[in-house]
């Protein structure tokens, strides 16, 4: 699944480059329309990247009773527990809990 997501991200980035090249070659291009397309592809990229699981970092400075505190690798917000959720409660980033004890 990770490879498929990375392929889609690469395709979206390629589409952004095509729109940018088009704007450079066609000075009469509708800039607001082109920038709208670029913003849409950037939003798609962000959504796809959040589906690729990342490891949460353990917060060694803060703790909660009987729970570990972790930090989301995408938004930097803290949450308690381990393997309780597959996604960040704040931003939706998918977590990779493999190799966690």
Q: In brief, what are we looking at here?
A:
This protein is mostly helical. It has helices at residues 2-25, 31-51; strands spanning 57-58, 69-71, 78-80. Helix 1 (2-25) packs antiparallel against helix 2 (31-51).
What order do the helices and strands come in, and which of them pair?
Layout (H helix, E strand, L loop, with lengths): L1 H24 L5 H21 L5 E2 L10 E3 L6 E3 L21
Antiparallel strand pairs: 1-2, 2-3
Describe the structure.
- With 101 residues, this protein is mostly helical.
- The chain has 2 domains: 2-51; 53-101, no CATH class.
- The protein is 45% helix and 8% strand.
- It has a 3-stranded antiparallel beta sheet with strand order 1-2-3, with no helix packed on it.
- The chain is elongated, with a radius of gyration of 19 Å.
Pick out its properties.
single chain, 101 residues, mainly alpha, three-stranded antiparallel β-sheet, 2 helices, 8% strand, elongated
């Amino acid at each position: 699944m990770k490879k498929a997501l990375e392929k889609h991200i690469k395709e979206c980035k390629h589409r952004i480059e095509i729109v940018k090249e088009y704007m450079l070659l066609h000075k009469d291009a509708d800039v607001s329309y082109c920038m709208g397309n670029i913003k849409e592809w950037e939003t798609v990229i962000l959504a796809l990247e959040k589906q690729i699981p990342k490891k949460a970092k353990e917060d060694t400075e803060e703790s909660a009773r009987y729970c570990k505190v972790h930090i989301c690798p995408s938004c930097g917000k803290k949450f308690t527990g381990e393997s309780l959720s597959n996604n960040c409660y704040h931003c939706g980033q998918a977590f990779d809990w493999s190799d966690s004890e």
